[in-house]
Amino acid sequence: MRSLTSIPLDDETARTRVLEAADRLYYRRGIQAVGMDALRAESGVSLKRLYRLFPSKDAVVEQVLRRRHEVWNRWLAAAITRADNPRDRLLAVYDMLDRWFAADGFRGCIFINSFGELGEVAPGVAEIVRTHKAGFQARVAELVAGAGAPASLAPQLAILAEGAQTTAAIAGTAEAARDARAAAEVLIDNALGHTETAR
Q: Which pLDDT score, from 0 to 100, does residue 193 have?
């Protein structure tokens, strides 16, 4: 009887294994520190097949980031759905960050990390990062509009969330999420108070 490891992988399964391995290694070590040989060893997919599935390392990085974008959007949607009212939906962003920062192996935002490593030399990566961040800002803007707050609140809240991610990665604690949430509450209540007064 053949072992499971000797059963040939179809391309989709092999592709998934490579991307999962790349995600783990890139996030833990950084992109530039991980070569295609390391991906071969971690994924169990031969180097020849790896290059057939992904023509370049940039192609692997871009696919990893696209998968992470989908994961982030699912996290965000789940956090927002659990909230009971428009104000809490805005604050749910920071509650989500708190849970993420406290997770084992948290090493910051892979999009910020990737841009820091490759932003100047990999235009495809830079574009994916910019699109991801713009998508987050747009989602926050929708939540702000849903709360009836001024549009100017959205970039303020987004910057708080982005700053919390960087601070948490450097400090190695989840405190930044709580600090950002407290600051967000002040901004939100101030914005909503001004809106009520104007009405």
A: 87
